Amino acid sequence: MSATCPYCGESAAFLFHAQDENRRSTAEIFTYYRCSCCQLIFLQPLPSDLSAYYVGDYHAQPATESERAFHARLEAIKLAYVQRYARGKSLLEIGPSYGAFLHLAKQAGFVPQAIELDSACVRALNAAGIPTLQSAEPAQALKTLGQYDVIGLWHVIEHLPEAWDVLSEAARHLKPNGILVVAAPNPQALTFRLFKAHWSYLDAPRHVYLLPISLLTQVARQSGLTPILCSTNNAEARWHNYAAWRGSLINVIGAQRVRAALSLPQSAAQPRSLSSRLKARLFRLALRLLMLTTAPLEGTGQRGSAYTLIFRKAV
Ligand SMILES: [Zn+2]
User: Fold this and answer.
1) Which domains are assigned to the chain?
2) What is the pTM of this model?
3) Which of 13, 15, 45, 216 is buried most, with the most CB atoms less than 10 Å from its CB?
């Protein structure tokens, strides 16, 4: 089995079949290929309506205080990065979901704007005073906007069939000295090599691409941007390492069996027993111990589960 790379047009070999193990939105089987030239991993054929797979609580806000705290740590890490490299305060996020990062950035003095697909998120963001355009085609939506000091795509680029158009349009909409922040699952990750089609950061079919760092850097350079940071081992990446181990193990073992083993209640409304809380804590502890043993491998050679790339536009 082979296919043609949608980015460079070279031939691509069959990589694996995958299913929607993260959300079980469908029983369909999806096929991924890897380009022999640029190493892009891509889903083909693309489903005609990708929005059909963004089901259930995809854009839900964290349900519990501990989940909120877990996610808040990630947003704070992202903000610290932006504050370190940004030279101004205007900030556009593409695909912010319910906008946890934008709210935090606004509190820190940034002037936020967003482009988002989900209508409920768009309404909530606009109601909260964060101007948000609803669009499934961010490259087109960008053309109607001005220029920004910061444009961020956190775990969004891998969802977009026209990923390179979005990147080049984003580059055009940066002010001189502006920065583009791109974070995405890393196809060089140790966890991807181990879990392959079961890797939770594959997230078939919502992730239509896994983009190598080298390819993103090439597209950015062609758009006049210079790489100033590339990390798969910063605090944000280590957060994703934990999430990738957790999600992939659950995929391999089976979500129902994990829930049964941890004695988790069937719904969030049901109270959790002391034994289920203890088992969940033991599961997290076992994960941490597993990660301590793999950290030396994940922390080197760009083998973290996700990367953060920052590019700067020339003056
Ligand atoms: Zn290619």
Assistant:
1) 65-240+302-313 (3.40.50.150)
2) 0.89
3) 216
